[in-house]
Every structure is written in structure tokens, then in C-alpha cells.
């Protein structure tokens, strides 16, 4: 919260040159923030900032292409912007990035588990190392280490990697990301892995929230999941087609996913789809030494090639 | 459906028009004996092959998928197979986490004159798939089993 006033004044300063600035405001209850589109100075006063601001606002940028847009970003969100710039999906001169240092955001699912219900949240206090939630007359002290999103526990980019205006002090300590969750899952027997995904995907509603929340899913009305030509996906609600949709999503994000975790957060039935993305990212990093959204002048690895690949041995079988 | 369901498995082959399809043709013209499990789909270039072709085949019941294109540097379109190589390699390393046996998918390079090599590739790959046996079909029974296994999730 400490940078909020400075952030507001900076946005007000830039607002006359911009069509809209995207940030967060309090949602329908004190626990939940919701995206805020600021067009006037009064709008800016509604702005909030803190560990409750979970949305990756870079999602909106491709839809607003051609407009002068300002956007408030955390470290992970800034990676999405870099990736979009790399792929020329947005124009650098059209966007103004308000970067912030972020110490982590809250996972609503974890709060729900700790509190037992999210129906009547009366008050939320943000402290330096966590949040205090008042629900149904009781107070719950929830440290960030307990209710923080998984991605924040392994965050290597607390500070916005790209910003026109950076507010606050940079955070230096970065966690180690050894992809232990991926390797742990992969150590299980194959049959179990297959069964795990079948059981998980069976719950999928095909609501496409994961796709819509993803800042790098940019096909909009041309998504292969819905197009009739090519007709990739049937309308059957078989587990194969649901699972296949997640494979489409993973393949289309290969080397592009910045692990912002929006897909998993937005999933109404809590399917751990980020695991698939992380596996793909791990492999891309091993094969092509590339992390999406970290270098602005790099080329996504699947849009390029080397005549002699360093890490591919295709002659061996 | 296979002509001989008892001994044949269903292997899908995506072959580049310019090299591997020609290579398979050369093998045929040379009258090399080869296993008949492979169903060939001819594509203009290995760069045309979306990794999702492979995934879709595997999810929907293929026992194996073989992709074959021109040798790197020999692409009819100069660089199609370079892109294919990256995609297919990424796909190959992605399969394990899905619980799909990555050995059921392979990609290789065969040129139009390499009839003998084509025969070897088909033989080796078919043999491998036969060792692995038929892939488990995803059906209601399997789903019920999976759900029972993760009933607590």
C-alpha cells in the first residue's frame, strides 16, 4: 500500500496523454480487487495497490491495441508485456507502464481454505507480511507465506522488468525456481500421471476462462478451440476433448508463457493447469536456453531456429 | 481399421511430400519388405506439421506417430524442417508430463533416395510400438478408474 499515493499522482500526471490507464480497485468485497479502467482523475482515486491485486492487467493490452494505454504492473505482469512486445502484438510507443515492486499476491483459494468461507468478508487489513481477514465475526491472521500464490514463492522477478515510471524501491532477493513441482510430478508412474490428468480434466467445463485470462492467448475469435474451419475440437464433452484443449493451450504457449498463473487462478474448478505450462517452460529453457518475457530484444524460440541446434540430438535413435 | 486386427497396430505417419514420401515410394519401387502398420499422411513439408496433429492422433487412439521430413539443410522450402525440428523436440519432451508414453512418438529425416533407410525406420519404429503394445484407449471405464484413483482430489 505504501506506494499508492505516489502511484496515483504519477498516473494523474500522465493521464491527459493517455486514453485509459488500467489498475485495480476494490471489488464486491474487501478481499477482492477488480480491474479498474481510469479515464478521469476521479477514477484514479479509486485505485488500490497491494497483495490483493492479483490480476495480470497485461491481458487487456492486445484488445486495446491502437489506443494510448497506461498499465500498472507487478514483476510477473511486466514479463507478459515484454513477451507481447517481442511478438509485436502491441506497440511500445502506445503503452505507458507503471512498474511496481511486488512482494507477492494472495491466492483466494488458499484464503478460502484457511477461513472456511469467502461469503461474508467484512474487513481485510493488509499488514507488511500478510493480511488479516475478518469473516463472520472472527479475525484470521494470514501470513503471506501461507496464503500467497504459489508463483510468488518462487518469484525471480519482483520488480517490473520494463517500466516507464517505476514507483518504490526495488526488491533484491529472488527465490530459486528449480521446477521441483514439475520433476516431482514426473517422477510418478506414467499410469498415475495419465489417470491424474483424466480425473482432473473430467471436471473441466470448457468455459475457456483459462484462455480468456491468459495475456498471451491472442487469437480472440479465431481460437482453434471454437473454429469450424479447421475443426480441431468437437463439441463433445468427452474427457479427451477437454484434455486436448489444454494441450492446444500448452502448445500455443510453448516458449511464450510467462507463468503469471492467471489460467490456473481463473479456473472455476481448480484444475492445476499451470503445471503443464511450467513443464513446457522448463523444457524450452533446457532446449533453447530461453525464458519468456525476460529479454525485450530476444526472439521466441519456436519462431526461430539454428541450423545446428545445441541441445537437440535427433540422429540418435 | 487395420486389415489384420490381430497382428497390426495403428501407427500414423506424417510424411513430407518432397523427401520422406519420395523415400517411402523408393522403398516401394525397390520392393523392400516392410511392416504394414503405418498409415501415411502426406503433407507438403514437415514444417506444415503442427505438433497438435501428433497429440490429437495419440489422444484419439493411435498407437504410435511417426513424423518424417527432409534432412536439415535439404528442405524444399529452405527452412521448414528447422522449425519443425524445434517444435517436435519441444513436443517430445512435453509428452511425459501428460502420461503419454513419449516412445510412441518419433521424428526422423529420410530423403527421397533413401529407400533402404526408410525401410529401417519403419521396421524399427513398428517393432518399438509392438513392444509397447496397443495404447490404452481413453474410455468411460478408464475414466472411472482414474476418478476412483483420485477420489480425494
UniProtKB/TrEMBL annotation, chain A:
Residues annotated as transmembrane: none
InterPro entries to which the protein is assigned, alphabetical: 4Fe4S_Fe-S-bd (IPR017896), 4Fe4S_Fe_S_CS (IPR017900), FrhB_FdhB_C (IPR007525), Helical_ferredxn (IPR009051)
Pfam annotation, one family: Fer4_8
Protein's name in the database: 4Fe-4S ferredoxin
Domain of life: Bacteria
4Fe-4S ferredoxin-type domain: residues covered: 248-277
GO MF annotation: an example: iron-sulfur cluster binding
Keyword Metal-binding: yes
Keywords assigned by UniProt, alphabetized: Iron, Iron-sulfur, Metal-binding
From TrEMBL, chain B:
Domain F420-non-reducing hydrogenase iron-sulfur subunit D: 11-133
Domain of life: Bacteria
Gene Ontology MF terms in the entry: iron-sulfur cluster binding; metal ion binding; oxidoreductase activity
Keyword Glycosyltransferase among UniProt keywords: no
Keyword annotations from UniProtKB, A to Z: Iron, Iron-sulfur, Metal-binding, Oxidoreductase
The name this protein goes by in its record: Hydrogenase iron-sulfur subunit
Amino acid at each position: 500500500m505504501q506506494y499508492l499515493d505516489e502511484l496515483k499522482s504519477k498516473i494523474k500526471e500522465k493521464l491527459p496523454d493517455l486514453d485509459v490507464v488500467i489498475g485495480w480497485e476494490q471489488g464486491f468485497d474487501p478481499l477482492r480487487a477488480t480491474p479498474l479502467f481510469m479515464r478521469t482523475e476521479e477514477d484514479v482515486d479509486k485505485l488500490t495497490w497491494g497483495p490483493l491485486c492479483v490480476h495480470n492487467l497485461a491481458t487487456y493490452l492486445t484488445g486495446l491495441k491502437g489506443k494510448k494505454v497506461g498499465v500498472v504492473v507487478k514483476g510477473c505482469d511486466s514479463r507478459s508485456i515484454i513477451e507481447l512486445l517481442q511478438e509485436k502484438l502491441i506497440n511500445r510507443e502506445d503503452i505507458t507502464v507503471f512498474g511496481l515492486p511486488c512482494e507477492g499476491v494472495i491466492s483466494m483459494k488458499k484464503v478460502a481454505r484457511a477461513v472456511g468461507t469467502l461469503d461474508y468478508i467484512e474487513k481485510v487489513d493488509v499488514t507488511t507480511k500478510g493480511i488479516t481477514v475478518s469473516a463472520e465475526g472472527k479475525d484470521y491472521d494470514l501470513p503471506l507465506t501461507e496464503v500467497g500464490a504459489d508463483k510468488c514463492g518462487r518469484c525471480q522477478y519482483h520488480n517490473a522488468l520494463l517500466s516507464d515510471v517505476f514507483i518504490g524501491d526495488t526488491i533484491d532477493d529472488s527465490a530459486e525456481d528449480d521446477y521441483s513441482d514439475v520433476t516431482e510430478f514426473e517422477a510418478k508412474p506414467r499410469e498415475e500421471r495419465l489417470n491424474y490428468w483424466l480425473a482432473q480434466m473430467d471436471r473441466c467445463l470448457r468455459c475457456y476462462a483459462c484462455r480468456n485470462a491468459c495475456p498471451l492467448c491472442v487469437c480472440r475469435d479465431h481460437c482453434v478451440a471454437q473454429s469450424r474451419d479447421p475443426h480441431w475440437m468437437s463439441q463433445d464433452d468427452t474427457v479427451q476433448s477437454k484434455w486436448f484443449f489444454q494441450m492446444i493451450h500448452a502448445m500455443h504457449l510453448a516458449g511464450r508463457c510467462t507463468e503469471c498463473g492467471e489460467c490456473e487462478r481463473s479456473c472455476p474448478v481448480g484444475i492445476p493447469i499451470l503445471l503443464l505450462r511450467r513443464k513446457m517452460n522448463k523444457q524450452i529453457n533446457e532446449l533453447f536456453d530461453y525464458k519468456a518475457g525476460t529479454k525485450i530484444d530476444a526472439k521466441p524460440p519456436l519462431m526461430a531456429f539454428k541450423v545446428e541446434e545445441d541441445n537437440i540430438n535427433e540422429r540418435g535413435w | 481399421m487395420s486389415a489384420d486386427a490381430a497382428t497390426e497396430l495403428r501407427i500414423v505417419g506424417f510424411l513430407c511430400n518432397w523427401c520422406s514420401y519420395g523415400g517411402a515410394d523408393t522403398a516401394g519401387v525397390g520392393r523392400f519388405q516392410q511392416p504394414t502398420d503405418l498409415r501415411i499422411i502426406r503433407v507438403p513439408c514437415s514444417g506444415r506439421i503442427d505438433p497438435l496433429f501428433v497429440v490429437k492422433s495419440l489422444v484419439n487412439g493411435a498407437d504410435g506417430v511417426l513424423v518424417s521430413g527432409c534432412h536439415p539443410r535439404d528442405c524444399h522450402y529452405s527452412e521448414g524442417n528447422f522449425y519443425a525440428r524445434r517444435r517436435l523436440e519441444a513436443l517430445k519432451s512435453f509428452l511425459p508430463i501428460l502420461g503419454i508414453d513419449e516412445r510412441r512418438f518419433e521424428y526422423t529425416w529420410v530423403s527421397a533416395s533413401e529407400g533402404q533407410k526408410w525401410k529401417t525406420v519403419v521396421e524399427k519404429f513398428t517393432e518399438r510400438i509392438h513392444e509397447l503394445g496397443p495404447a490404452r484407449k481413453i474410455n468411460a471405464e478408464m475414466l472411472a478408474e482414474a476418478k476412483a484413483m483420485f477420489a480425494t482430489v
